[in-house]
Amino acid sequence: MFDVSREDIVGGSLARALVVLAGPLVAQNFALVAQSVVDLFWVGRLGGTAVAAVGVATAIVALLHVPLRTFFVGGQVATSQRVGADETDAARRVPFTAAACAIAVAAVLGVGLVVGADSVVGLFTDDPMVQSMAVSYLTAYALALVAIAASDTLESGFTGWGDTRAALYVNLTAIVVNVIFDPLLILGWGPFPRLELFGAALATAIGYGVGGLFALALAARGRQGFVLTREALRPHIDTARDVVDVGLPIAGQSAGRQVARLVMIWVVSAVGGPAGLAAYHIGSQVATVAFVPAQGVAQAATSVVGQNLGAEQPVRARRATWIGVAIAAVGLSVFGVIQWFVPAPIAQVFVPDLSGQALEYTVLYLQILAYGYWALGVIYTVEAGFNGAGNTDVSMYSTLAQYWAVRLPVALVGAYVLDLGVAAVFWGVTLSNVAAALWLAGYFYLSTDRGMLDQAATEAAASD
């Protein structure tokens, strides 16, 4: 009842396939959110300055994840298309090739992070305490990058295969270990030293290291044809090239998004100070909870679209995308209504001691965000339709326009020309989400009418 096979994905009910595949992914993403909430809860015990420092550090870390997304998304799409075409041996090669590439890139990024943390943090805040705490967090996070590269790439392989339950198990393992170590290393409980923000990042590294090992154990045992074999472990240049070709535009998309977010944080810091930074970070964490169902549906849709294209069924791939859009948009709209009416209690779930101007700014941000939640459901799932077809460049160009042509101009003009302060930054986020949803949905409709998915099906079925 709660399993879905390749035959179900390419020949059964699309709504059922999306819901069944999305279920473990939604649970997994909620677990990731719970991890962030727990991290924020324990960091919050160190005070508002620590929360602001993590807000700065998190934006920098997100930028470092950009190159790794090449292998996460590229691996999932390439795996799903080969599974759909019933090319089992070729499909098995993808996750392990992608993981090897991701680990190598993460190691280089980690070294650069340790060397350059002081200089980078200094670009975003001149508060010495915030700077010191953010650098401490980033120094330890260098280890987490390598562990995340291994764990998340293998997890993407399971998702592309259609085994989202295995992906859930891998993430839950990483998260539970992280949550256990958070208070031990942040506050120094028992025999553990009090490492504060350094300990928060170190707990993440330990958690994802264990998650990566568990993913390897599942693959060694074998699940639904995804099994660790000697052939799968051999270097395969053509497979790596395919993964990069599909995933590189996603990295470009993430780069555009994360650099823009860093600029937004600079603006928030300039016009809102530490209270604005805390509100922006808390609002982002709350929004992450709302996005969870849509992200799960989008991840499922990427695999469903990819497998149907591999099986040369473009009509089903198109239907899967629009069904996903409907599910995600409705779900996020419901959450938005709730958030608009009770923003303060929601904010204080994340940081119980939040008060004063930080609480005022956070309430304002949460209510403004709520107006555009439906649009995020559309964005995630329409992008999944393009990504599943291998047209990841569309998502990249859309994101660049969303952030650089709408979000940043609205924030800068509103804050510095119209003198609206930090509220302008918050409105920039929502207005850019609505604009992106409208143009993505329209372009997907036109592209599919012109045969985009038919061409993708032909190319996917011919791949080796």
Q: If you had to describe this structure to a student in words, what would you say it looks like?
A:
With 464 residues, the chain is mainly alpha-helical. It has one domain (6-462). It contains 17 helices and no strands. The chain has helices at 6-11, 14-44, 48-64, 66-84, 88-121, 128-161, 164-186, 196-221, 230-233, 237-310, 314-341, 343-350, 356-370, 373-388, 392-417, 422-449, 452-462. Helix 11 packs antiparallel against helix 13 (356-370) and helix 11 (314-341) runs antiparallel to helix 14. The model has no long low-confidence stretch (mean pLDDT 83).
How would you summarize this macromolecular structure in one to three sentences?
This protein is mainly α. The protein is built from 17 helices and no strands. It has one domain.
Give the percentage of residues in beta strands.
under 5%
How many strand segments? 0
Please tell me what the overall shape is: globular
- Which regions contain 5 or more consecutive residues with pLDDT less than 50? none
Largest sheet, in brief, is: none
Question: What is the gyration radius calculated from CA atoms?
Answer: 21 Å
Helix and strand content put the structural class at mainly alpha
Whole-number tally of structural domains? 1
Mean pLDDT: 83
Helix content: over 70%
Quaternary form: single chain
| Cα distance spanning the termini | 32 Å
Number of DSSP helices? 17
Order of helices and strands: HHHHHHHHHHHHHHHHH
